[in-house]
Write a structure and sequence with these properties.
This protein is an alpha/beta fold. Bound molecules: tryptophan and iron/sulfur cluster. The site of tryptophan has 12 residues, from strand 3, helix 10 and strand 6.
Length: 448
């Protein structure tokens, strides 16, 4: 495993529900890079969630950018925790996945039934039922296509379980403690859940599933510990490590056996990539290439991973990730299935969702006079967030809501009514689509 400073992640607990407010601070604190036009600009029609800053951070998205630019294969991986009904917060991730699918990625969706049983005490049957009726069915209605996409169950896919076993050999208890704050009373199956998730994320790079290639995992920032664990695990099982240095790029062989064979192979790969100028040092198990750049590092890393797979190595690239903001619930905290009053669910009666929205907290002022005089604060308003993430018809509309709100021309009652109208028509349309796509469920679900 890579050495890294140990810190306890109390603020981002993937199983907790602490609300995270300051995304920029989080990004800096955890070394997440900013996700901006340099990243999403690679797509022809970048999704609103990108352009509007809802996706605010990433790790290693450059790998995806390279693949899109070079028309190389790349994939998207996500998983769903079948622990309740699907709400608007869950919708964002799937929309991003669908956008990537339309941009040429293959898409793999894990039903986290192992995790639901291990961490929430669900039965497998209940988890399956919720996964299909709530998540998969809704995903299809949102536009997920069964072409080039699959849904599978963690407990049914033996290769995921086998890979997790293999990974578990190189993960130790102090790592798990420092990443997750696990204590003495954590059950062993809970401890295994993140290892299984790492196998979810990495197994699509198996040679018979497309081989080593960039994979992006769109997640909420609470899932970052999983991403870091998975990236460490991928790297721990590599033959080579590639490091960018002041004077170029260094390639290092990690195993102590057959160093010269590994260096020969790396020299071959470099030659095929068109490099001609490097220094070999068998004693340091090293090849040094002068003048190589970031893009070269990624290309070399990918080519070496593919070469490792040819020799029956795992050869898994570290996954990329994007991080999106949480959806604020109607009560001002995180939108959560376990607090139905705070959430709008995709399959609920539209009128019921409307009622909850009408009772939402807002960024409004205490009195009408004050709001007309000073304006309100959309940055503190879950209703504004609804427009931003889901309801605004276009950027002009969003801008209008924003400016009228801050300018005091818009009052919360009317603003909520407008949002409620849009939400109701979205839900109605969505629920009709569900009927149209129901027959696609068996087409996308794999039983192994
Ligand atoms: N842990 C995720 C959650 O709580 C579910 C999940 C399982 C997942 N496997 C995954 C997410 C792979 C992304 C990629 O929602
Ligand atoms: Fe929120 Fe609308 Fe009120 Fe502004 S006017 S604070 S956006 S509800």
């Amino acid at each position: 495993m890579n050495p890294r400073p140990r810190r306890r992640l109390v603020e981002i607990d993937p199983w907790g529900s602490n609300q995270v407010q300051d995304y920029a601070r989080l990004r800096d604190q955890f070394g997440i890079a900013e996700f901006g036009v340099d990243q999403w600009g690679v797509f022809d029609e970048p999704h609103d969630l990108f352009r509007r800053g809802v996706v605010f951070g990433h790790r290693d998205f450059e790998r995806i950018r390279d693949a899109v630019k070079n028309h190389d294969p790349w994939g998207v991986m996500t998983g769903l925790m079948p622990s309740g009904m699907m709400h608007l917060g869950h919708k964002m991730v799937m929309e991003q996945c669908i956008a990537h699918q339309q941009h040429g990625a293959d898409l793999h969706i894990a039903v986290a039934d192992y995790e639901a049983v291990a961490t929430r005490g669900f039965t497998l049957e209940k988890a399956r039922e919720l996964a299909l009726d709530q998540y998969v069915h809704n995903y299809l209605a949102l536009g997920l296509s069964p072409d080039n996409a699959e849904v599978y169950f963690q407990t049914k896919r033996n290769r995921v379980r086998d890979l997790a076993d293999q990974f578990a050999r190189k993960v130790n208890w102090s790592q798990m403690q420092s990443l997750y704050g696990f204590g003495g009373n954590t059950s062993l199956s809970h401890i295994m859940a993140p290892i299984i998730q790492a196998a979810d994320i990495l197994h699509p790079q198996a040679h018979d599933m497309g081989g080593a290639r960039p994979i992006v995992v769109p997640v909420g920032v609470d899932q970052d510990p999983h991403i870091r664990l998975t990236r460490d695990i991928a790297q721990a099982h590599r033959v080579y490590s590639i490091k960018r240095q002041d004077d170029g790029v260094g390639i290092y062989v990690k195993p102590d056996e057959n160093v010269s064979g590994h260096l020969d192979r790396a020299e071959n790969v470099l030659g095929q990539l068109g490099f001609s100028d490097w220094k070999r040092n068998d004693g340091y198990k090293e090849l040094k290439i002068g003048g190589a750049r970031g893009r070269d590092v990624r290309a070399i890393d990918l080519a070496l991973a593919i070469a490792e797979q040819k020799k029956r190595g795992l050869g898994l690239l570290r996954p990329a990730a994007t991080f999106h903001r949480f959806m604020t619930g109607f009560g001002g905290g995180k939108m959560s299935s376990s607090q139905p009053e705070t959430s709008a669910f995709l399959t609920e009666e539209p009128k019921a969702a409307e009622k909850k929205l009408m009772r939402s907290v807002t960024g409004g002022k205490a009195t009408r006079e004050e709001q007309e005089r000073d304006g309100a604060d959309p940055s503190q308003c879950p209703v504004y967030e609804l427009y931003l993430y889901h309801l605004a018809e276009d950027d002009g509309h969003l801008q209008q809501v924003h400016d009228e709100c801050t300018g005091g021309e818009r009052l919360c009652g009317g603003c909520k009514k407008e949002a409620a109208g849009l939400l109701v028509s979205f839900l109605k349309g969505h629920q009709e689509k569900r009927d149209e796509v129901e027959h696609l469920i068996p087409e996308i679900v794999r039983e192994d």
